[in-house]
Amino acid sequence: RDTVIMQATLNLHDKAPQPRSQNSISEDATAINADSVQRGFSSWSASHAIASRELAQKDLSRYIKKLGNPVITKDSYGRVWLFYVTVSVGGWAGSSIAVMYSDDNGQTWGPSRRIVTLVKSKPFYYEDGTMGLPVYHEFIGKFPEIIRIDKNGELLGKQRLWWARGALQPLVVPVSGDDAVVFLRSASAKLNRILR
């Protein structure tokens, strides 16, 4: 069991982190903050910004309009991962996922890299230690899929969940080494319910 629990939250008004080159960032930048708590203790560390719109633009070499849906997890190797959504043009339907990681329990972070489209829920882990990240698409067609990522953040493959076409925001709950339950939100305004 981890001795440190971390959380990431979206903050629209706090001071953003200084970029690795020490250039200045505007005080009103959209930022993703992180804080942590030792297991068994009740007080959380002071929240601090670990990503910003400007820093994501620099790392990803593209215009970033806004950030959203931060998801943080720690893998079996001790690496802390942050997945978040970036929007460049339009709204959430045209967004993509960025990922960054820390090898020192969130004290320092590597640069962001772009992966795919939208993320909403935590990843799960396969028995070989690779990560499964539930993602979904809203551009043109609406469908969920699972991408598989190795310990270095490289994309190994993806699996579309065709049986759930028209559903969004998959949440995968492993129930054994071979089985999992997937919960999804219906994308239909007429069908306002969670699918399984």
Q: Oligomer, anyone?
A: single chain
Shape: globular
| pLDDT < 50 runs, ≥5 residues | 14-29
**Number of helices, where a helix is a run of at least 4 consecutive DSSP H or I residues:** 1
Q: Which H/E pattern describes the elements?
A: EEEHEEEEEEEEEEEE
Mean pLDDT: 77
Q: Sheet with the most strands?
A: 5 strands, antiparallel
Determine Rg (CA atoms, Å): 17 Å
Structural class: mainly beta
- Helix % is under 10%
Could you explain the architecture of this structure?
- The protein has 196 residues and is mostly beta strands.
- The protein has one helix and 15 strands.
- The chain has one helix at residues 53-60; strands spanning 4-11, 31-38, 48-52, 66-74, 80-87, 96-102, 113-114, 118-119, 124-125, 131-137, 143-149, 155-160, 167-174, 180-186, 194-195.
- The strands form four sheets. Strands 8, 9, 10, 11 and 12 form a five-stranded antiparallel β-sheet that branches. A four-stranded antiparallel β-sheet has the order 4-5-6-7, covered by helices on one side. Strands 1-2-3 form a three-stranded antiparallel β-sheet.
- Strand 5 and strand 6 (96-102) form a beta hairpin.
- The longest helix has 8 residues, at 53-60.
- Residues 14-29 have low confidence and may be disordered.
